Structure formats: C-alpha cells, structure tokens
Amino acid sequence: MKQVKVYSLALDSFTKAPIVLLTDLDEKTCLPIWIGIFEANSIMIALNKIKVPRPLTHDLAVNLINKLEGQLELIIISGLKEGIYFAELNIKVKDELIKIDARPSDSIAIAVRLDVPIFVNETLIELMVNLEEFKSKIVDEHLKTILDNLREDDFGKYKM
After folding, report:
1. Where do the DSSP E strands lie in the chain?
2. What is the pLDDT of residues 138-160, one digit of tens each?
3. This prediction's pTM
C-alpha cells in the first residue's frame, strides 16, 4: 500500500464533474477520482474547517464512530472494477478491527474530518499519473476557487 493525501479538488473541464486528486506524499503522482458535487462540497468543508449549523452526513458518520467508541485507523482506496473505485474504512472498536465497504468520496470526507491516513492499494499505484501533466490536461481550478471561497453563511442559519 502507498500513503496518499488529498491534494485538491478540481473540476473536469470536459464533463464538469468534480475530481478529488490524491497525490503521493511528494506530490509527484496523483490518482484522480471523479466524485459527486455533494461529496466534493463535504470534503472541501472539512479541509477548510468550515462550521455548519447542523451535522452533514459525513459529520454524522464521525459522530457514530465516536459514540460507539470506535477509532478510524485509516482508509484504503482498495480497488477499481468496471470504472468504479472501491474503498474501505478500517475502524477499531475495542480489540476488533472492522472493515467497512464505502465509496472513496465518502471515505475521504470522513478521513479528512478525523485526520487519518489515506492509502491506495498496490493494484491502484500503477494507475497514478504525473500530477503536473494531469493538471495541465484535464483539471479546471474553477471548482476549487468556488469551494475555497465558501463561507459559513452560504449554508444558512439554524434557528431553534
């Protein structure tokens, strides 16, 4: 396995779909994963430590792990089948390691909130591409600009 980190979120200039770019720790190669807009939004909220009035779905998952006295140890982007990436959450509860199948985007959104390492399975390392080449050909930084400039008020106010 190889440890990676969230390098950025961007927009595919052709499909206009959000992409999360996972890079090796030296930021030389990347594994681009196309994700949904809501997951991209959730990842960016966590990366920028934006406070929201009510828990988002990924905040709920974090709360469940904590309330059940679990600890997310790491996530693994575990495979690719028919164009779909797979991931797993590795949660330790007492002395038991529980592996939970999840979408990579959800796993990353949770991992960023809990500041836990992200790994890519050996079979996916060969799919990593040169970061600079990828950025110059496919990525539009427009989404990153939009998401980076979100404010707490953009999510509305919660009143009791």
Report:
1. 2-12, 18-24, 29-34, 70-81, 84-93, 96-102, 118-120, 129-130, 139-140
2. 655 555 566 666 666 555 554 44
3. 0.83
